[in-house]
Amino acid sequence: MKNRLNSYLLITLVIMLSVISAHSFAQEKKAGEWKAPKESDQVTNPLKGNDDAVKAGKKLYRQQCAICHGDTGKGDGVAGMTLNPRPASFLSERVQNESDGAIFWKMTNGNPPMAAYKDIFTEEQRWQLVNYIRSLSK
Amino acid sequence: MRRIFITVIGLFLLGNSIVAQDSKPGKTQFMVRGYGHAGLDYYKTPDGKDISFVGAAFSPIFLFKQGNRFMFETELEFELQKNELEIGLEYANLMYVINKYLMVRAGKFLLPFGTFMERLHPAWINRLSTKPLGFGHDGISPASDIGIEFRGAAPIGGTHINYSVYVTNGPRLKDGSEEPDEAGMLNFQNYIDNNNNKFVGARIGYLPLYNSSLELGLSFYTGKVGDQGSVYEDVRAFLWAADFSFVKQISPIKGILDIKAQYNQTNVSDAYYPVVEEARDSANLFTFNNLSRAYYAQLSYRPSMAGKTFLKNLEIIGRYSKLKTPEGSNWGSDVSELTFGLNYWISWRQVIKINYAFINSEGGPDAEEGPQTQKSNSLFVHWAIGL
Amino acid sequence: MKKIILIFTLSLAVAAIAIISSSCTAQREIAAQKSGAELWAQNCIRCHNIPSPPSYTDVQWETIGLHMRERANMTSGQIKKIVAFLQTAN
Predict the structure, then answer these.
(1) Which end of chain A is more exposed for a tag (fewer CB within 10 A), N or C?
(2) CA distance B207 to B152
(3) Considering only CB atoms, which chain A residues are within 8 Å of B314?
(4) Greatest CA separation found in chain C?
(5) Is A14 found in the same domain as A73?
(6) Distance from CA of A26 to the nearest CA of C (A)
(7) Is the peptide bond before A85 cis (omega within 30 degrees of 0)?
(8) What does residue A5 show for φ and ψ, rounded to 5 degrees?
(9) What was the pLDDT predicted at C8?
(10) CA A92 to CA B132: how far, in whole Å?
C-alpha cells in the first residue's frame, strides 16, 4: 500500500517537473526575433550628441520605461518578470548595435507586450529617449 | 434539473462567444473569467496515510458591464463533494460607480473583512494550496453576505486611502439545539436573516508610501446574532481584523519580497447553552468566554532579477497560521500550522505549487477527554490557473 | 470593542480632513504624475502577478478594469490610466 502511494506521488511530481522544464526551455528560445524594417536605419537622429536631450530622456525613462526595462536598463524591472518575451536589456549588444532609427521605430510602433508610444510621446520625446538609451551603455 | 442548468450555461457561453467575435464593441460587454486547479494531496496523521487527486472544482466569474458605470458580477462554484456535484453562489452583486471616489454594491458580495477572503483566496492568487487556519467557509470570520456596501478610494498627496462601509443580514448564532457540539459558533453561511437586526461593517485601508507597496487595513463587523424571539435574541457579536501587505522588488536581494498578514478576532457576548445530550428545557446550562482568534503571516520571495528565466519563475514561500477557538466550549481547539512552498510560475496566471505543511492541533470538536495533541503533515502538489 | 469603534471614527475623520486638504492643486499634481505603466505595475502586484497586456483585447481590459477598480479599491483616475496603458501594449 505504502509503495503504491509513493509511486503515485512520484509520477505526479515527475509530470509537474517535466511541464516546468519543458516550459522554461521553450521560453528561453523565443526572445530576440523582433526586427525594425531596413528603412528605419536610414532615418537620422535630429538630436544626435545633444546632452540636454539625454537628461530629458532620463526623466521620461523613469516614468514610462523603468517599470519593465529596469532602473539601469538591464531589462529587470518588476513588471517585466511575467512578460513573454522578456523586456530587452539596453546594455545588450543586440540593442546597442541597432541604429538610432531602429530603436526609434521600435518604441514608436511597439510589439506586444511592448507598448506603442506613437500617441504617448512626441517625436522629440522619443528621440530624447533614444539618446538616453544610448547613454546607458557608457 | 442540474443537467438542464449546465446545458443552459453552456449555450449561454457559446452564444456570447459568437457575439464577442463582432469587432465593433457595443455598450454591453460580457466576459467570463474565473479560476480552477488540479493536483494531488497527501496527508499523514497518527491515524494513517491518505493520498488523493483533487481539483474537481471550477469557479467561473461572469462580468456584465453596461456603459462605463454599471456592472453585474457573479461567481459560481462547482465542486464535487462526496460524489455529489455541489453548486455554490460565491457572490452575485450589482455595482454602480457614483463618482471618482465612490461606488455602491448590492446583493451577495465578498466582504472586505481583512483582505484574504476578498482579494487573496483564489487558487491562482493564493501562493499556497491551502487557506490559512480559520479563514474560509468554515472559519471564524465571514467570507460573504447579502447587503449593501459603499466603497472607494481617494488620493491624499502621494498616498492613497481606501474605504468600505456595509450593512448585511449577518451571521446566525448556533444555539446548540440542532448540533449541541457547536453551541456558540457563528454560522456565516446564513442568508435568510434570523432577526431584524442588521450587521454593520467597515474597512479602512491606507497606502502610506508613494509607490503603493505598503497597505495597512483595519476592519470591524458587528451586530446581533441570536434568533428573533429566542433567549439568545440579545446576543451580540463583535469581529475585527487587521491586515498588512508589503510587496516590492528590492535590488540588493535581486527579487520581489511579498509579506502578507492578517489577524481576525471574533467575540460573542456571554450566553448560556444546553449541556450536550440534555434536553433544551433542562436546567443544565453552561457558558464560556466566547472568543476566537485566527491569524496568519506569510513571506514569499521571487528572484525576479536573476539572470536565468528558470530562476526568475521560481518562488519560495513560508506561512505560519494559528487558530484558537474558545476554551470551555465543545469546539475549543488550538491549532497551528507551518507551511513551506516552492512555486514555479508558468505565466502570470498559471502556477505549479509544491507545498509541505506541518499541523499541530490540540482539542477540536472530536476531543472528548481533555486536550490531546495531534501532529499531522501533508504534501500538496497543485497546478492552478486564472482564467 | 468601543475603543475600536472610536479608532474607526477617528481614522474616518482623519481621512475626511486629508481628502479635503488634498484638494489643493500642488498635491493633486503629485498623484497625477504617475504614468499608466507605473500604476499598472504598482497596483496589480499588490495581490497578484502583473498581467501581460496582450492577454486581453481593448474591450476586455475595460471590463476587467471596472472589476478590479472595485476589488482593489482604486480611483477612477488610476484605473483609466492603467487601462489606457494596457490598450497601447496589447
Answers:
(1) C
(2) 13
(3) none
(4) 51
(5) no
(6) 18
(7) yes
(8) -55, -50
(9) 65
(10) 44
What CATH number corresponds to the domain at position A84? 1.10.760.10
Residue labelled with grid coordinates 464577442:
B20
Contact assignment for C76 to B97 by CB distance below 8 Å: yes
Range of the domain at A3: 1-30
Domain boundaries, chain C: 1-32, 34-90
Q: Which three cell numbers stand for residue B224?
A: 446581533
The dihedral region occupied by B184, where left means phi > 0, alpha psi between -120 and 50, and beta the remainder, is: left
CA distance C58 to C86: 8
The count of structural domains within chain A is 2
> Are residues A5 and B348, on separate chains, in Cβ contact within 8 Å?
no
Distance CA B215, CA B243 (A): 8
Each residue's pLDDT tens digit, B296-312: 999 999 999 988 888 99
Distance in Å, alpha carbon of A37 to nearest chain C alpha carbon: 20
Non-local (6+) Cβ contacts of B208 within 8 A are: B159, B214, B216
Q: How many CB atoms lie within 10 A of CB B157?
A: 16
CA distance C41 to chain B (A): 10
Domain map of chain B by residue range? 2-19+27-386
Q: Which amino acid is at A32?
A: G
Residues 57-86 of A with CB under 8 A from B: 70-71, 74, 76-78, 81-82, 84, 86
Contact B348 C18 (CB under 8 A): no
Calculate how close chain A gets to C1, using CA atoms only, in Å.
41
pLDDT at residue C81 is higher than 70: yes
Instruction: Identify the CA nearest to C19 among candidates A116, C11, B220, B247.
Output: C11
- Nearest chain C residue (CA) to B23: C59
- The phi and psi torsions of A29 (rounded to 5 degrees) equal -70, -30
How is residue B387 written as a grid cell?
A: 482564467
Looking at the structure, tell me whether residues A45 and A12 fall in a common domain: no
The answer on A51 and A13 residing in a single domain is no
Determine the residue type at B322: K
Q: Is C37 on the interface with A (CB under 8 A)?
A: yes
Helix, strand, or coil (residue B124): coil
- SS3 for B11? helix
- Rounded to whole angstroms, the Cα distance separating B370 from B74 reads 44
Asked whether the whole model's pTM tops 0.90, one would answer no
Question: Residue C27: what pLDDT?
Answer: 45
| Cis? peptide before B365, omega within 30° of 0 | no
Would strands B48-66 and B333-347 be described as parallel, antiparallel, or unpaired?
Answer: unpaired
Cell of C41: 505595475
Whether residue A6 is found in the same domain as residue A53: no
**Tens-digit pLDDT profile for residues B50-79:** 888 887 788 999 999 999 999 999 999 998
- CA–CA separation, B154 vs C18, rounded Å? 10
Q: Which residue does chain A place closest to C38, by CA atoms?
A: A67
Which residue of chain C is at minimal alpha-carbon distance from B266? C1
Nearest residue, CB atoms, B158 vs list C30, C50, C69: C30
- Same domain membership, residue A51 and residue A24: no
For domain B2-19+27-386, say whether CATH 3.40.50.300 is its number: no
Judged by DSSP in three states, B40 sits in strand
